[in-house]
Amino acid sequence: MLNEPVTQLKGVGDKFAESLADMNIHTVEDLLFYFPYRFDVFEIKPLSELIHDDKVTIEGRIVHEPSLTFFGKKKSRLTFNLEVENVAIKAVMFNRAFAKKQINAGDTITLTGKWDAHRLQITVSNYQKGPAADQAEIQPQYSLKGDVTNYKLKKLVQTAVKEYGNQIDEILPEHYLHTYKLPNRREAVATMHFPESRVALKHARRRFTYEEFLLFQLKMQLLRKIKRESTTGNAQHYDKQKVDGFIGDFPFKLTNAQEKSLIQILRDMESPYRMNRLLQGDVGSGKTAVAAICLFAALTAGKQGALMVPTEILAEQHYQSLTELFGERANIVLLTGSVKGKRRREMTVAIEDHSIDIVIGTHALIQDDVSFADLGFVIVDEQHRFGVEQRRILRDKGLNPDVLFMTATPIPRTLAITAFGDMDVSVIDEMPSGRKEVETYWAKENTIERIFNFIGKRVEEGEQAYIICPLIEESDKMDIQNAVDLYHQLEEYYADSVEVGLMHGRLSTDEKDGIMKDFAANKVQVLVSTTVVEVGVNVPNATIMVIYDAERFGLSQLHQLRGRVGRGDKQSYCILIADPKGEIGKERMRIMTETANGFELSEEDLKLRGPGDFFGKKQSGLPDFKVGDMIHDYRALETARQDAQEIVEKNLLEENASFYPLRIMLENDTFLHDKLD
Ligand code: ADP
Ligand code: MG
Question: Which residues form a coiled coil (predicted)?
């Protein structure tokens, strides 16, 4: 049986077993699925192709008996000459005195080690007697702990494969193996440890990558299905005609991407299940317009709607654009921390007796005193800025309301289908037509005068600029000092010709608000700011975004900041001031100047930073795949997702016998149980 303890295998003593346990190998099955983390490929190359300092493999005939010298306490050096392609090569082996007995003049030997092209010398890390053709080219390398050596583990796996290999049963239905040309499980396990060729190894890895991804996606899909079906009774029967009328009054036509997302959301609203959907779209792609239509649809179904955003400024902007779009059609209120006392009480009463249709607000709207008459539709903007608990509180203010999360931080598809596998995702991947791409430049700090000068000229033309000030790591107090200094510098530079404003996180809400209003009204032309300006602010007349220390931001954040400009019909500019030290930093700046599409950027960011860094290690919630790599194997991830979707939709796990092994596997998985508790 595969679940027998690994100590059943010959030669596994207590100490060895302990070390194996540290490596999470308890059963024979654990051992069989403990795959090497890499393979050393020993490939013999002609001497002329060997590169100095590389790890190489050569084959030759030993010319004379090796000589052994000892030095230090326990150290030894074994040297011998061998003849390779009629050239004399020197071999050096450290601390392997025992090898002297095995290596004899006249023998053919294969050596792997570091090549010194100047001295024609190899420092041996691995040797095999005999010519290279006689031995496996590809050597597994396992990650190890304690007493376990690579050699011992390899031998043990060999035994396990021989004695237990035929008990490994297939879990994937034949259909998939056939369609994707995957080797069967038994064969693939053996190949993962002892590949006969690189091609065979590639297919074995493909097989386990698919298996892992499929299991993961199945778990996510099942979770989503269970979550969905555990909610009932919120089918919103909206008035299609009225909704069409509402859209017809917009001063623009929806883009195809907006239309598609809208249809997906409305379909969810009509369904008896609770919607749990993420709407992704670049800044300015028109998410708010879509959100407005859905809110309106909810109203025609007799429900109330709520929109929660992370900052007051953003709340006010949403309030303005929504009141404009809705006109007389709805009673909309703005509920933020600044609404206090009697006004707040009046507002909460009106929300509770349904004289208010839509509430837009910050955290203020999830306080205890706010209760809705009939909250049917909830939108959370920039959802990653809220905690799980805050989102839950808002949701619980209604009876199973449909929930739409919105984000302007483009999440790479690869991550989205993995991290948000239990959510539905709509994507607006198209900009309204007529937008001009923001021209992006990368500059060094010594060109700053020229940049200030350029800003001055644009301001003369009636345009405006943001300058995001330098960052200091220690504290944001010092960042504020930087902002203040830069502000004074600019006031001096521009004298009376330009009005400069200053914004940072220590200002009161009223002060920030006042400055933003002055900027929006073009009373201030150049706004110096810390990154508080990042989210959602909309001043179409601003055409220049200067970002100091751009190398310190992630690509997605830079893209967010850049999204503050290019919102009107004038040509806009983004200037990144950066002096990155490493290659990756330079590459990132280059990508910024070349890529305007937020999704492409986020894919690049993901490749450069890796998935852990992308979300921040702690809260990533991303699975650790053993064989598959989310980034490189993203096609397989998508294929697996589609297959999982079909399996769950058609209920194949329950109804089709060939899925039985997969079902058993899932039933034994603790993941689902944990997530559902
Ligand atoms: P987002 O919320 O995704 O950042 P918004 O919904 O705020 O984007 O839209 C940005 C700007 O584009 C707004 O001024 C909005 O009126 C306008 N807009 C939205 N959709 C369209 C469209 N289909 N065609 C033209 N302009 C649009
Ligand atoms: Mg918006």
Answer: none
Tens digit of each residue's pLDDT (9 = 90 or more) over 314-367: 888 899 889 999 999 999 999 998 888 999 999 999 999 999 999 999 888 888
Which residue out of 246, 278, 279, 288 has the highest number of ligand 1 atoms within 8 Å of its CB and is therefore the one to mutate?
288
Q: 277: which strand partners?
A: 404, 424
What's the pLDDT tens digit per position in 26-55? 999 999 999 998 887 777 888 888 889 888
Residue with tokens 């002096």: 579
- Pick the ligand that lies closest to the CA of residue 286: 1
Which positions ≥6 away from 667 have C-beta within 8 Å?
none
Q: Which domains are delineated in the chain?
A: 43-135 (2.40.50.140), 211-228+631-676 (no CATH), 240-428 (3.40.50.300), 439-595 (3.40.50.300)
Three-state SS annotation for 376-426? EEEEEECHHHCCHHHHHHHHCCCCCCEEEEEECCCCCHHHHHHHCCCCEEE
Give the count of beta carbons closer than 10 Å to the beta carbon of residue 197: 11
410 vs 240: CA distance, rounded Å: 30
Q: For residues 30, 36, 37 and 43, what is the CA-based torsion angle, rounded to 10 degrees?
A: -170
- What does the pLDDT look like over 104-125, one tens digit per residue? 889 889 888 999 999 999 999 8
List, in sequence order, every residue forming a beta bridge with 428; answer none if it has no partner.
281
Structure confidence at residue 450 as a pLDDT band (50, 70, 90): very high
pLDDT tens string 173-195: 999 999 999 999 999 999 999 99
Choice from 250, 252, 314, 380 to test ligand 1 binding pocket (greatest atom count within 8 A of CB): 252
Strand order in the sheet with 439-443: 439-443, 573-577, 542-547, 464-468, 526-529, 500-503
Contact 668, 248 (CB under 8 A): no
